[in-house]
Amino acid sequence: MVRSMMDMELINRLYPILATAAENKTLLDLQEILRRFSFDVVFQNLFGYDLQFLSPGHVSNTTSKFADAFTHAVQIGSERYVANISALPILWRVKRFLNIGSEKQFKMSVNEARGFIGGLIKKRKEEKELVGDDVLTRLLISGWTDEKFVLDLLICLLLAGQEAISTALTWFFWVISANPEVERELVKEILSNGGGESNRDEVNGGGGRCMGAYTRASLSECLRLYPPVPVDTKEVMADDVWPDGTIVKKGMKIVYHIYAMGRSKEVWGSDFAEFRPERWLERDGADGKMWRFVARGDSYSYPVFQAGPRICLGREIAFMQMEKVVAGVLSQFRVVPAVEGFQPEYISYLTSKMKGGFPVRLERRSKGDL
User: Fold this and answer.
1) How far apart, in Å, are the Cα atoms of 51 and each of 40, 60, 169, 292, 309?
2) Where is heme bound in this sequence (predicted)?
3) Fewest beta carbons within 10 Å, which of 157, 196, 287, 354?
């Protein structure tokens, strides 16, 4: 179902928007376009409901209010998180107590977003026959009827899915635009595999032969340098002693910096600052001309998708979606930053963003690009 919805969103919405921009030589904020695209795909996968968020002319006022409220709540919630680990959490707590400022806005945004999603859940429960492959329908068919539990779970999945994928793709297209040799290798691989039609073998656990090995390696390398979630926190459940002798106590908050870990010389070597997909590849085949994707390190040294029992269950789905977008876009277009030598200003809410967006122009792909 994810593949079908992804294809429809790509063919019916994303490609026409990019094609029109290329034809008219207009600028697009690719960060915003990808956010809307990802929102549509993930939301329909979860709820079986088409927001049409990528089609501005078809977005209802209710849908627009929901999307804006969801985005606003994420931003304020992220600011809370930063305050908790690096500033004075008392400030937002006081504002929440007095119901003023950002905390008042947060409450209003959360109520708007939860009200919209809660309405979809209630309406689905009232249907005489539950039919569909979306996550909500499957949960209800399986007996999960507690509306609050289902709502909280689906909001969590929506947050993780649409924010992470759109963020990862935004940074990827910028990095590729600055590395023409990598772009040529990517396009060569994409076109040799059907021009965007995925026929690669799955890479379960990050190893093995793969038709899209260079694409997978390029995405993995970009995620190393620009992880969608740059910082994360865990809470200690019981007193423990780590292998290096560090003592941790129950209730302590452990903060780990994924962005910094991806740029560690000790882990990635002296070329840690370079974007080099080849670090994830080995030559394969009798003639040594084929690439084989090989995971580097383990999920604890590369915790982009978490690690251990908390590892992201949607990792392979996320890669499939990202590969689909990369193959589809790069097989048809060149993504060119509107400003030559564009260097985005990195900002972090829940996920890493480009301040002010990513203005680009689209150029139709030609044979001369290869």
Assistant:
1) 6, 8, 20, 39, 33
2) 312
3) 287
Q: Please provide the CATH number assigned to the domain covering 2-369.
A: 1.10.630.10
312 is in an annotated binding site: yes
pTM: 0.88
Amino acid at 283: R
How distant, in Å, are the alpha carbons of 89, 299, 300, 306 from that of 310?
27, 11, 11, 6
User: Helix count (H) and strand count (E) of the chain?
Assistant: 13, 12
Backbone angles phi, psi at 132, to 5 degrees: 150, 160
Tokens of 216: 């997978």
CA 59 to chain CA centroid, Å, is 22
Q: What distance in Å separates the CA atoms of residue 174 and residue 180, rounded to the nearest whole number? A: 11
Per DSSP, the residues of 134-184 read SHHHHHHHTT---HHHHHHHHHHHHHHHHHHHHHHHHHHHHHHHT-HHHHH
Please answer whether residues 186 and 215 qualify as being in contact, where contact means their C-beta atoms are separated by less than 8 angstroms. yes
CB within 8 A of 188, min separation 6: which ones?
370
- Classify residue 273 as left (phi > 0), alpha (psi -120 to 50) or beta: alpha
pLDDT in tens, 7-65: 889 999 999 999 999 999 999 999 999 999 999 999 999 999 999 888 866 656 788 88
Written as one string, the DSSP assignment of 225-291 is HS-SS-EEEEE--S-EE-TTS-EE-TT-EEEEEHHHHTT-HHHH-TTTTS--GGGGEEEESTTS-EE
